Amino acid sequence: MHKFLCYIKKNWTITVLLAIILVAFFVRFYKFDEWLYFKMDQSRDALLISRAVNDGPGYLPLLGARAGSTKLKHGFLRLGPVFYYFQYLSGKIFNSTEPYVFAYPDLFFSILAIPTLYLISRLYFSRKYSLMITAMYAFSFIIIQYSRFSWNPNALQFFLLLAFYGLLKMLNEPNKKKRKWWIATWATGAVIGSQLHFFGFFSLMGISGLLIIFHFKLWSRTEIKACFEEKLLKKIVTYAGIIILVFLIFYIPVIISDSRKNFQNSKNFIEAIGSKPANKPLSDKIQKGITENLKYYCLITTSQCYENSHMQKEWPAIVLTGAILLGGFILIIRSLKKEIDPLKKDFLLLLLTWVGIFFIITIPVSFQLRPRFFIVVFAVPFIFLGLIFNYLEERLGKKKALPVALFLTAGIVGWNSHGTYQWFKEQAKSQKSAFSVKRTLILKNKDGVTLGELQRVSDYIYAHRKTGATIYYYVKPEHVRPIDYLLLQKQDKSLKFSNMKLNGDPQAQFFAITPAKSGLTPVTKKFKEAIAIISSQQIGQLKVWEIAFPNRFINPNFKFKATAGEKDRLYWKDVFSIKMKKNTKQ
To answer: Shortest CA distance to 318 belongs to which of 354, 293, 289?
Structure first.
């Protein structure tokens, strides 16, 4: 026991960091499957990847999820497919297509982001302050929420931090061999991050590009001329080769898809960039951008400021967040005026460009901002607090500054822990009753319906099915695909089902899934037919009904047609089948 205590004392940094990671994992994994957020996007992705898991990697797509819901001239703009490949690997590793298995990669990367932030912080801060920054990040309510479900932007928080860590090390590594590995690290983080969200793409490219310009002073003619010297030119070519190689490894599917689809996705990308954002004056967009940035930074930092109607009551959280951002910005400018270590200077320049570039790219879409856009800057307010801790130490000395820093850290962690606790309470109550959920902040529609509730609804439908019947069910649009997917998970080949439509099917069996508070009102409003209730059960916020339409016309010649899936994609099986056909002709 004595040796163990001595080891902990000697390695207190690792011990504290491991404790932070373990507690952060517990909070993220607690009731992970039952309280999982599983809506339209999640069920669409699960349906797509489950086929690849079951039938082989030939069914993996060459492009990823849609970037927005707006259809362009050449179809939908899509991201790269790396998010889907992470899900596929998870499905194969756990030999399962359960929805929570496809969410494991986002959980995994959210945990990896914690030690990565610590490593970045150590480039500038002491071990004590780096641990404080890491703890505040690890227990931020909104960061925890984005770690507990599957969505393509969620893993961006890790790959962005990985890219920035690699970039800072690359710019300040004197060893040529090691520098190559740091270039590969930065390129990997940036290339994968660029496939997870277009905000991530523009942020990573803009921030990295500006920092490289600042570091090498590429506005100077002398520095530009130096780049064309033979020795330096060889290095640049070598480093560019590494970046291109990493890019090709992760973008080969996108390149193949575009070459076979007449550069459809590239054309959509160009069109999307050139499309006009919200038709508002620039001054209104800037003003809205400032208020939205302050609101969402407040949410990240304190777990507050999540409802516009209560913003007046949140003034302590807003004032604190504003003070952190303003104080951090002033301290960056102040420190950059001094002669400091090159690595620390690059660290401060990274922070400055990080916040600046992000704010600039939010201006055109300031009226459409959502919490997910701020995944890019999840770490920023906590790093700014680290700068304030450093300043307090400079002014007050280590002994006086440390208690203040610990107090502020405990306050931020406590504030966010309270927010997480309140959210968990809402989730628990919503599983048993029609409880209004306010803290599920993923989409505008905060119904808070979880996988556990949807799973029990699908179990009810399956248990009440009639032999040979075709099941038609009514549910609001965001739950159609999830119910489809959960019924498919029954792996019953005799089970036929579709979204509800009144038709002449003589074997039709009807179900309705509605908010428990609404009863059957949504169904009667839509179909305007007499309804007979056969059975019903309340499941948390939902109520599932087996119903019949007594006046329905029945056609003995009716034929059931299954709903078609997405057709605008290429899969690896399509690529290889085309090659095989060409080979056989030759």
So the answer is: 293
- How far is the CA of 141 from the CAs of 87, 144, 303, in angstroms? 24, 5, 6
Instruction: Give the single-character DSSP code of 338.
Output: S
Burial 286-298 (b: 16+ CB within 10 A, else e): eebbeebbbbbbb
Which single residue is written with the structure tokens 């809402």?
A: 426
CB 53 within 8 A of CB 497: no
| Long-range CB contacts (within 8 A, 24+) of 521-528 | 522/474, 522/476, 523/474, 523/547, 526/474, 527/502
Tell me the mean pLDDT in the region 57-83: 84
CB-CB contact of 131 with 21 (8 Å): no
Between helices 380-396 and 398-430, what is the axis angle to 10°?
150
Q: Which long-range contacts (CB under 8 A, 24 or more apart) does 486-495 make?
A: 486/99, 486/454, 486/455, 486/457, 486/458, 487/458, 487/461, 487/462, 488/47, 488/50, 489/97, 489/98, 489/458, 490/458, 490/462, 492/462, 494/468, 495/462, 495/465, 495/471
pLDDT for 276: 58
Tokens for 563? 């709903």
Domain limits, the chain = 2-421, 451-548
Largest separation between any pair of C-alpha atoms in the chain? 87
Query: Which helix (H) or strand (E) element contains residue 478?
Result: none
Residue 151 has pLDDT above 50, yes or no: yes
Place of tokens 């890491």: 134
What is the spatial distance between Cα 118 and Cα 113, in angstroms, rounded to a whole number?
Answer: 9
Alpha-carbon distance of 348 to 282, in angstroms, equals 29
Question: To which residue do tokens 């090159």 refer?
Answer: 342
Task: Say how far apart CA 151 and CA 99 lie, in whole Å.
Answer: 12
Q: Is 213 exposed, middle or buried (0-12, 13-18, 19+ CB in 10 A)?
A: middle
Closest CA to 544 of 456, 421, 482: 456
Cα separation of 230 and 304, whole Å?
56
Over residues 395-424, the pLDDT tens digits come to 999 999 999 999 999 999 999 999 999 999
pTM above 0.90, yes or no: yes
DSSP assigned state of 303: S
Q: Is 531 helix (H, G, I), strand (E, B) or coil?
A: coil
pLDDT band at 311, cuts 50/70/90?
Answer: low
Terminal-residue alpha carbon distance, the chain: 74
